[in-house]
Amino acid sequence: MKSRILITGGAGFIGINTAAHFIRRGWQVTLLDNLSRKGTDINLKWLSREHQKHFSFIKADVRYDQKVLDREVARHDAVIHLAAQVAVTTSIADPRADFEINILGTFNVLEAARKAKTPPVVLYSSTNKVYGNLEALKIKEQKKRYELAALPNGVPESQQLDFHSPYGCSKGAADKYVRDYARIYGIPTVVFRQSCIYGQNQFGVEDQGWVAWFIIALLSGHPLTLYGNGKQVRELLYIYDLSALYERAIEKIATVRGEAFNIGGGPGNTRSLLEFFSEMKENHGLKQKLSRAPIRQGDQKVFVSDNTKIKKILGWMPKIRVEDGIPALLSWVNENRGTIASLYLVR
Ligand SMILES: NC(=O)c1ccc[n+]([C@@H]2O[C@H](COP(=O)([O-])OP(=O)(O)OC[C@H]3O[C@@H](n4cnc5c(N)ncnc54)[C@H](O)[C@@H]3O)[C@@H](O)[C@H]2O)c1
User: Fold this and answer.
1) Is 133 left (phi over 0), alpha (psi -120 to 50) or beta?
2) Which overall architecture, per CATH, does domain 4-345 show?
3) Would residue 167 show up in a list of annotated catalytic residues for this protein?
4) Which of 82, 106, 201, 329 for a ligand 1 pocket mutation test, highest count of atoms within 8 Å of Cβ?
């Protein structure tokens, strides 16, 4: 199958990179976004420059524009639903907006798919936050990092769900809806419980997109706060690997429909925050005094995905190692310093 794809939240970080991937692979791409995230205008200009308008863009809101969704979802073969409120902190400050965007917005996309004459494939970007703080798991505290004592391969999909924070609840509810629309209505849906994704075109802020945020702040001298003791471990997945996975899942939809998968860099691509800062200093000469603050609500001490299920079914594994991905992101930030500086000044 190679045809028309709709990407909601398409002007955001994952959306714009995924759009570029699908355009390069010969798909007709439509982006839908309400442009609420800062930097989306820059992303759209970048995509136009790179791909000379081989895509169309619709400004719409997944909460309110049901008619637009009905029309657009029905005329595409696949939908990647990325539009979302994306930060835990913002969800705590405004849980209603988080609820409406993430639950109602996803429900609206699913309803559009259900009403379509031929329902498209629907991929949903869920999150590892649906597993909560993993309180029942034994966590080892090492000198510079936390580790999952009993899960050297990471957290599998059989881990008990434990929605934590309004963001965890809204993404988790949407995750359940997406899977159930496969079960009840036969819509070919797939859920990806993604961990930390990083890469170019990521205008990270303190609340979301931490790798990009730290790199931008280190390069620009923006004040930085370290929440908690810095031993929190995150796995990192470079955006190109994720976009490639989306395409493979659509092409092999018969084998993955109705499933949920944990998707991340896996045990070979993890960093604690302390390790990350040491690496920045030692390998790239970037350092800065960090302010300290208590750990934030809903912050996991450690999360690493067990990618075994997706590897077994689709043969997918991350290809880009953190050792290569971080310098690639660093180069992108360096090359785009002017644009990035203007964006961060007006925040
Ligand atoms: N980046 C990560 O590390 C990560 C990890 C796990 C899950 N995810 C999920 O992946 C998806 C994309 O994340 P991202 O990192 O690209 O974030 P992003 O903020 O860059 O992209 C989200 C896009 O959705 C748009 N949007 C927000 N509300 C909207 C609405 N009501 N209607 C239409 N568009 C709206 C924003 O303008 C933005 O362009 C989200 O669903 C997020 O929860 C991301």
Assistant:
1) alpha
2) 3-Layer(aba) Sandwich (3.40)
3) yes
4) 82
Amino acid type, 140: K
Rounded to the nearest angstrom, the distance between the alpha carbon of 38 and the centre of ligand 1 is 11
Q: How far does the centroid of ligand 1 lie from the alpha carbon of residue 141, in Å?
A: 32
Helix (H) or strand (E) holding 96: helix 95-99
Output the six-digit token pair for 210: 């931490």
Q: Whose C-alpha lies nearest to ligand 1, atom 21?
A: 12
Q: Does the pLDDT value for residue 296 go beyond 80?
A: yes
For residue 10, the ligand 1 atom closest to its alpha carbon is 39
pLDDT, tens digit (0-9, with 9 covering 90-100), for 132-179: 999 899 999 999 999 999 999 999 999 999 999 999 999 999 999 999
Please tell me the predicted confidence (pLDDT) of residue 26. Answer: 95
Contact 51, 239 (CB under 8 A): no
CB 344 within 8 A of CB 216: yes
d(CA 202, CA 215): 11
Encode pLDDT of 195-242 as tens digits.
999 999 999 988 889 999 999 999 988 889 999 999 999 999 999 999
Three-class DSSP category at 32: strand
